[in-house]
Amino acid sequence: MISTSDFKRGLLIELDGQPYQILDVSVSTPTARGGNTLVKTKLRNMLNGQFADKTFKSGERFEDPDFVKKPVEYLYNDGSAYHFMDQESYEQFSLTNDEMGDVVDYLIDGLEGLSTYVFNGNPIGIELPTAVVLKVEQTDPTLKGATAQAQTKPATLETGLVIQVPPYLESGEMVKVDTRTGLFLERVRT
């Protein structure tokens, strides 16, 4: 059983017989005496891709979803679906853009550490590694005489994702990005 105290980004729960992934979680404690602590979540239905905002009372319990996690390899995108290969059985399967969600912002050829969630025998989603290395395709030129204060500038990565990066980065450089938050982690020297 999963309790609301176990909730974190990326956790999978079963709610009304449907698998959901927690995209965001926050805890709210009422000021009134005797008020229950509330756990507010943003969820994505893993079967149909729909989003839902749900609030639960602290201490509520949920069934562990009947998931199997398998390592996969990304093969290609044909414009309408993303194709993968199960690294254990070598069977190929595909997922639509809706089923992929924001995973496509980090997906590049040769990316290692991917897994798929299998629910009732069907692949329903992809789990990314916690960080990926992507190339900066376009960003403003390096700022001369930048101050010591923390400044950032937008950068478009090779997947089309736009993130904030430090002012010293230039187009063509490689950066490590946290796939859970979408934040710049560090410059990667090749």
Write a short abstract of this structure:
2% of the residues lie in helices and 50% in strands. The chain contains one helix and 16 strands.
3D architecture notes:
The chain is an all-beta fold and 190 residues long. It has three domains: 2-62, SH3 type barrels (Roll), CATH 2.30.30; 68-127, Nucleic acid-binding proteins (OB fold (Dihydrolipoamide Acetyltransferase, E2P)); 131-188, Nucleic acid-binding proteins (OB fold (Dihydrolipoamide Acetyltransferase, E2P), Beta Barrel), CATH 2.40.50. It contains one helix and 16 strands. The protein has one helix at 97-100, and strands spanning 2-3, 12-15, 18-28, 38-45, 51-57, 61-62, 67-77, 81-86, 92-96, 115-119, 122-127, 131-139, 153-157, 162-165, 174-178, 184-188. The protein has a five-stranded antiparallel β-sheet. The protein has a five-stranded antiparallel β-sheet with strand order 14-13-12-15-16, with no helix packed on it. Strand 4 (38-45) and strand 5 (51-57) form a beta hairpin. The chain is flat, with a radius of gyration of 20 Å. The model has no long low-confidence stretch (mean pLDDT 86).
